[in-house]
Structures are given as structure tokens and as C-alpha cells.
């Protein structure tokens, strides 16, 4: 039989039991924590949530802002032609359209005269213009492939003197478009003789002229438009000429 424990022995056993219980408690807690580790999932921070939301909004805005190519409206500055031009490209026509007076915008172009169809004759050009009153665009291509011409505020016609208004201008693609508008120094816009068509004048020189066969022509700087030589040389030969009625 065992006798009663002394006071010191009791205290020692009690302390040992408490230490054992404490150790067992820590061991159990560690095991539980190890069992819970597989459930841990990293949660996004508030900053990441904000950035993610902004990226999503940007993607939605980009999708909403993307235009539908099929729904794009037609350019109101591009006129409708009754037939294809053999002198001017679509880009040339569009660029020229920005320089026309507002009264011309939106009107279709009608090919009144062209040398490939009506022949090289100034008289034929006058005949084709009979009865026309609207503004006219003359477009030429010479033997060097240079494209140039003039916008007349009224139809080309036989006349005893110069006629027209300050809307008249000369132009040249060399290769970029250059437009020479009225300077206000004189009113020598257009004059039609039997064997000579003149546009712009001053000091005995013409901004653009064409002879009776519409095959030979020339261009010089003149006071009316303060223009450069429209072709590569002051005298040229016409390869193709078109007259478009813009009304």
C-alpha cells in the first residue's frame, strides 16, 4: 500500500499534471489548425477589386463605343456623278468639293461635255452648254499626266467680254491639290471667243487658256487668281477634257 503523499510530492504531481494538460492542449490545437489549412483561400484586396471593376467598365465602354461600319453615314461632301470621270479620281472629287460655294453642295454632277465622246472642239463645248445656267467644273489631263482645271460660277459660253463672279477659281493637282481663288484685283473671270477660251487675266497673260481645237492650251500666273502655272510647262497639249454641270 502506498502511504499518503507529502505536501511537496503533491505539489510536484499537480504541476506535472498541469504541464501535461497544457502540452496536450497545444498538440490538439496544432492538429486542428493543420486540418483547417486546406480550406484557406486568398481573398482579393479592396484595391484589386477596384482595378478589376475599372477594367471591366473600360471593356464595356470600348464595346459600346465601337462604331458599326455598316451604319456609317455617307460623307455629305462627296457629290453623286451621273457617270464615272476619266480625269478625276474619287479622292480628287472629294478634295475639290470642299472649295465649292455652299449653293453647289449636294447637287449631282452631270457630264455635259468630254473630248473622248464629243471630240476636240471648242464649238462643240459651246453647243453642249446651250441652255445651261449653273456652275461648271472644267477638268483637264495633259500629255504629262498633270491634272488641273477651273471652276466657273456660270456655264461656259460665247461672250463679248469677261463674265462670272468671285466664286470662280483655278486648281491643280501637283500632286497635292492647290486652289487659286479670286484676289479681288480685277474681274477677268471667263471669256469665250470663237477660237479661244480664257480664264483669269492680267498684263496680257491668262491663268488658263484653250484654243479652238481644245487640244492646245497654256497657263501663266495672272492677277485675277495670283496662280502658279497649272501644268508642268506654260504650254501643254490636252489628253482629256471634261465639263461637269454642278446643278
UniProtKB/TrEMBL annotation:
InterPro entries tied to this protein: TLDc_dom
Disordered: annotated segments: 1-28, 44-76
Pfam family, one: TLD
Domain spans labelled TLDc: 86-247
Biased composition regions of type Acidic residues, renumbered to the chain: 51-66
GO cellular component: nucleus
Any GO BP annotation: response to oxidative stress
Protein name: TBC/LysM-associated domain containing 2
Lineage: Eukaryota, Metazoa, Chordata, Craniata, Vertebrata
